[in-house]
Structure formats: C-alpha cells, structure tokens
Amino acid sequence: MAKRFHLGWFTNFTADEWNTPFANGGSPWDGKFYVEIAQALERACFDYLMFEDKLSVSEAYGGTTEVYLKHALGMVPKHDPAPLAAVIGAATSHLGIVATMSTMAYPPFLLARLCSTIDHIAGGRFGWNIVTSAENAAAQNFGMDKLPPRELRYEMAHEYMDLVYRLFDSWEPDAVVMDRETGTYADFTKVHPVNFEGKYFKSRGPLNTVRSPQGRPTLVQAGGSPKGRDFAAKHADSIIALNSSLEEMKAFRDDVRARAEGHGRNPDDIKVLFLVAPVLGATEQDARDKHARMRSGSQFIEYSLALMSAITDIDFSKYELDKPLPERLVTNGEQGSLDAFQQWGSGKTLRELVQNSSGAIASIELIGTPDRVADKMGDAMATVGGDGFLITTPTQAISRRVINEVTEGLVPALQRRGLVRTEYTHKTLRENLRAF
Ligand SMILES: Cc1cc2nc3c(=O)[nH]c(=O)nc-3n(C[C@H](O)[C@H](O)[C@H](O)COP(=O)(O)O)c2cc1C
Description:
By secondary structure, this protein is of the alpha/beta class. It has helices at residues 32-43, 66-71, 81-91, 108-121, 136-141, 150-168, 226-235, 246-262, 284-296, 298-312, 335-342, 350-355, 370-384, 400-416, 429-434, and strands at residues 6-12, 48-52, 96-102, 126-131, 176-179, 184-186, 196-197, 202-203, 218-221, 238-241, 271-276, 279-280, 367-368, 388-391. Flavin mononucleotide binds at residues 10, 52-54, 100, 129, 131, 133-134, 150, 222-225, 228, 240-242, 275, 334-337.
C-alpha cells in the first residue's frame, strides 16, 4: 500500500483570473469566490488552503508600480487574508485555512489575539504562515527606512515566537468553567500574565481571548536559508518549500527533519509540502499545448520577471532576455526562491529560465493527464520520502475551471491510487496533518 501524502493549495487574496477565455473574475473582494474555492477543495479533502500575502505595492520591476497595477500581477491589489480566513472558516467544516501574517507588521499581542479569534471561528482549523517580510517597500510602510537584514529578522522572529507562545498559553485549557451555581465564567487563577521582556518585544499579557481549539494555530513556514530552515524546523507544523529538482526536494526535507530532531522534535510532526503548478489536459498533447500557450505569451515572461523582482528587490527588467544572468544574484529578500529560479551554472538564458524550466513557482514539472500527473506525484513522493504538495497555478491566479481540473480530475486519480485521503478523520488542522 502506497504511503499517503498531504495536499495544500497556494493562492492569495488577489484579483483571480479575470481576462482569460474561461475566467469571469476580477472582483472577488466580498470573499464569496474564495469561499466557493474552499468548498471545492474541502470536497477533495485538501489539508489546507493557504493565502500568501505581501504588504506593499512593489516598484521593484523597472522602478515603477506600472506593471504590477496594470496587469494585476498577483502582487496587487492584494487584500488582507485574515478576515477572509474567518469567512471561509465559518463556511466550511473540515478544510484548514492558512493566512500569512508578518512578524514585522503585527505587534505580537495583536497577532496572538487575531489567531486565537480566527481559530475559534474556524473550529480549530486555522493556520498562520509565519513570514518576516522580504521587501524594503513593506518595511517602509511600517515606518522603517529599509528591511532589517535576514539574520536579524529571524533573531527577532524567534523572540516573537517565544512571546506569542506564552500569550497563547496564558489561558489554561480549563480556564472557562461557566459555572451557573457560583456565577463564574472564567476561573481567574487559570489565566496568567506573561510579563515578557525581551530584547525586541515586551508584553504584559494575559491574552484577552479564550484559549482556542488548537491552543495555538497550526504553524506554517517557508524558510529557505540556513537560518530560515532552522526557524521552520523549530516552529512549523508544515513547511512549504520551493526546490528545483527531486534531489533538492529530498535534501531539503532530510535537512529540516534533521534540524527538527536537533530541536527535540519528532520530525514526523512536520509536513513538508512542495510547491507545484500542474498543467492538466484530457490527453498528453492537450496538456503540452496548454503549457506551451501559457509560457509563450509576452505577458507570462513579464509576469514571471516582475514577480521575481518583487520578492527579491532585484530589477529583472535590466537584464537581457537572451543572455544568461551575468552573475549569481543575491538578495536580502527571498534567496531560496531566487536560487530555484536562477539555476546558477545551468547556462540558460533569462528567457529560457522563465519559459523552459519549472522556473519560479514549481519544484517539479507536472504536465499531462490527471492519471499521468498522479503517477508522477506518487513517484516523486516515493523518492523524496514525503510529505505532500502545495498546489498552485503558473501565475498563482485561479479560476473555477482550474480548481475543477484539480479537484475533479487530479485528486480522484490520486485517490484511486491510495495516495491521498478520501475523508477527513480529525477535527483540527494539526490533527489532520499528523494523521499520516
Ligand atoms: C511556497 C512559499 C510561500 C511563501 N509565502 C510567502 C508569503 O506569503 N509572504 C512573504 O512575505 N513571504 C513568503 N515566502 C517567503 C518565505 O517566507 C521566505 O522568506 C523565503 O522562503 C526565503 O527564505 P529565507 O527567508 O530563509 O531566506 C514564501 C516562500 C515560499 C517558498
């Protein structure tokens, strides 16, 4: 019997597909479109729907906001995923919902309170994707001159986590007694101040919210650098990763699992989900044609480069498309994603990096019929060892059609092979992640 793996969906609260032949989107701002998507993913027994987030309107590509705003390139407009997670939580029963929130932006008390509130609304199915932010423009929106260096961001984030754990634990599990006889709602001896004084953060506590069903939200993280991996291995229930080959995927997973053991954790409590963007067709040729159409448009090249610029603060508009990159690029932003993209040493031109490779958004290429792609996913997991995939589209934008192809085509093919769940067996997101 094959070892089962987990499925997440990666998207953001953006304009969705609005100008492709089979898309009717563009204004999902009341959240209802994403509720429908969540319900479809729940029918397919996904572990979670994850909303990526950023906190600025980028000018990284060409020194202007034009490309981002004109094409609504997945970076802007971008609405806040936290209230959306609450709306989705109230409209679903099993699916996990993960929202991204930055340790740079939220005071720890506010974040802990928000997570606790949403976890209640979602019945223990809320997850927090912990990010430290990676763009100067985002830092400037919060009063800083520029982004602190990566090492410092992680140092601050570790302290941040110490504090939010204490806030989450400031209510003992049985603090709410609701005893009519004595007229007692909460037993005050079971709600404790935290009096935290760190190098960067200070908070009195206790939290003023009732302890949430999961106690603390399910923690998701995507650290790529050594410090980032260490952070993820220490804190995350699920790590989301972007690598550029099966070998790298395996090495990454082995590394974070070893680091987790070093932190005294059971590595099986961490599920590493690899980002992929399947392109599905009724026949192999159909899928290949679709893939070729997606990649050949001039908009796709601009999109990919503008996205890479936004997450690295490197202006890709200044490099020649038909030459290899002149040097291995480094960033104070998302170095892991940049490395997966630039494939330094491969000799590929910039155009080829965008067009011919799995490129910016996929760990392995998945093109074909649902059955063929399901086989490939099963084979990949057999090589890597686990733990699943985080599915997205080549532009991250979604339509009902794209979701349908996965939930009604690919997932049933995976289920027929015994590779993914056919029903939820637990109540909370963390329990479902740990079920196998
Ligand atoms: C699949 C995936 C999703 C990510 N989502 C976000 C996000 O929503 N917001 C954000 O600011 N960074 C996001 N990141 C960036 C990571 O938080 C992290 O900064 C990046 O992987 C680089 O790792 P490092 O910080 O250890 O260098 C994401 C990265 C990956 C691979």
